[in-house]
């Protein structure tokens, strides 16, 4: 079973990716590889106007990646960075539709999108810091999200933030 399902919509203008893993949508090496392959497949599509990422389960990403330990970082980061560089190179807006838990690499994936749409159940955190791992994407992108009420909080601490506790137009813009 593929960890993602793609749907092309609106005459090829929108590509929607669904995270499909039944137990938490952990963004491990297999999921990152599948997302990167899907992103590479979008190159050369001039009609593409947006990418939307969501989940088929109740949580966007309910667990941190177990391999996110210091000894594994050197093998995990290159494909992780390649995914974000490829998506960025497509030059189209991105959106995440988040409900439930959005943790670890899933939180970073959502936060990398230009738009985040979430309901009151959305809960964001980057617990990699508990294992002594600095969240690579969050540490770069969160300071640049001016709509975040406290941009560095998720990257520098282990607490989680719930969408319902913040002004959604600021926390999830």
Write a concise keyword list for the protein shown above:
173 residues, alpha/beta, 2-enoyl-CoA Hydratase, Chain A, domain 1, 3-stranded mixed sheet, disordered C terminus
Give the arrangement of secondary structure elements.
Blueprint: E1 4-9, E2 14-19, H1 29-40, E3 50-55, H2 73-89, E4 94-98, E5 101-103, H3 105-112, E6 115-118, E7 123-125, H4 136-141, H5 153-156, E8 161-162, H6 168-171
Parallel strand pairs: 2-3, 3-4, 4-6, 5-7
Antiparallel strand pairs: 1-2, 7-8
Helix pairs in contact: 1-2
Overview of the structural elements:
The chain is of the alpha/beta class and 173 residues long. The protein has a single domain (4-171), classed as Alpha-Beta Complex (2-enoyl-CoA Hydratase, Chain A, domain 1). Helices cover 29% and strands 20% of the residues. It has helices at 29-40, 73-89, 105-112, 136-141, 153-156, 168-171, and strands at residues 4-9, 14-19, 50-55, 94-98, 101-103, 115-118, 123-125, 161-162. Strands 1-2-3-4-6 form a 5-stranded mixed β-sheet, with helices on one face. Strand 2, helix 1 (29-40) and strand 3 form a beta-alpha-beta unit. Helix 1 (29-40) runs parallel beside helix 2. It is globular and about 45 Å long.
């Amino acid at each position: 079973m593929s960890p993602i399902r793609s749907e092309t919509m609106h005459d090829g203008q929108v590509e929607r990716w669904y995270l499909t893993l039944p137990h938490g949508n952990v963004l491990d090496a297999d999921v990152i590889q599948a997302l990167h392959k899907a992103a590479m497949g979008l190159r050369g599509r001039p009609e593409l106007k947006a990418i939307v990422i969501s989940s088929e389960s109740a949580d966007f990403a309910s667990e941190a990646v177990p391999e996110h330990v210091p000894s594994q970082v050197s093998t995990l980061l290159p494909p992780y960075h390649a995914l974000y560089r490829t998506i960025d190179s497509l030059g189209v807006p991105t959106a995440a539709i988040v409900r439930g838990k959005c943790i670890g690499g899933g939180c970073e994936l959502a936060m990398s999108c230009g738009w985040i749409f979430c309901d009151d159940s959305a809960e964001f955190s980057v617990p990699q810091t508990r294992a002594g791992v600095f969240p690579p994407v969050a540490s770069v992108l969160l300071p640049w999200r001016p709509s975040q009420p406290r941009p560095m909080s998720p990257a520098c601490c282990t607490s989680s933030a719930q969408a319902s506790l913040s002004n959604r137009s600021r926390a999830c813009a």
